[in-house]
Amino acid sequence: MAGVRQFDEEQVLVDALALFWKKGFVGTSMQELAAATGVQRGSLYNAYGGKEALFIAAYRRYLAKYMQGIKKALAQPQLKDALAAMFDFSINLIRTDRRGCLTTKTATSESATPAIQEALRAQMDTLKACITERLMQSPQELALPVADAALLLLTHTRGIVVMERLYDDPEQLRNSAKALVQLLVK
After folding, report:
1. Which residue ranges in the chain fall short of pLDDT 70?
2. What is the per-residue pLDDT for 179?
3. Membrane spanning segments where (predicted)?
């Protein structure tokens, strides 16, 4: 039928994401995406319009799942526990298959297009808003104003990604996160 996708879109996004994660946006060709997904290049172009749009669709799908995990972690009743759970979730995720963080890997690549940079900024804004929302439940427990604490926590989530790549030491990452939480939460 014309206009009906003849492939499992969820699986295509999973397979495309895995390839982008491994090779980066620029390092991944449409031919490789077709091979990885089992979908003809023409069908990928028809469905997504191009490599950039496919990357953004795969990235957004991944981020929806990532944010579910972050929200679950931040739902802990005690603020210190919530922040520790958020960092534990993030540390465990970046260590999965030693892939690192797709957002940070892509953001530090000089090849990110304006549309991809916008998708990355939107993710950081979403994560910061989620952190801010949780901090607003316990502002009296913070050593800093909520906005400053949220920005510091967001920035630290990016810093642990770099440290993980350099040192491959999850205990060091957890200790760093724990120290930050101890400084921020009275």
Report:
1. 1-5, 97-98
2. 98
3. none
Residue corresponding to tokens 């996160």: 177
Q: Domains of the chain, with CATH numbers?
A: 60-184 (1.10.357.10)
Give me the pLDDT at residue 1, please.
45
Report the Cα–Cα distance between both ends of the chain, in Å, rounded.
62
Tell me how far apart the alpha carbons of residues 184 and 151 are, in angstroms, rounded to a whole number. 12
* Residues 6 or more apart in contact with residue 65 via CB below 8 angstroms: none
Q: For the chain, state the CA radius of gyration.
A: 18
Asked whether 186 and 138 are in contact (CB, 8 A), the reply is no
Phi and psi based region of residue 144 (left: phi greater than 0; alpha: psi -120 to 50; beta: remaining)? beta
Of 60, 52, 71, the residue nearest 14 (C-alpha): 60
pLDDT given at position 33: 97
The contacts of residue 129 (CB under 8 Å, 6+ apart) are: none
Q: Write down the pLDDT at residue 101.
A: 86
List Cβ neighbours of 19 (8 Å cut-off, separation of 6 or more): 28, 32, 33, 36
Compute the distance between CA of residue 49 and CA of residue 69 in angstroms, rounded to an integer: 30
- pLDDT at residue 5, rounded to an integer: 63
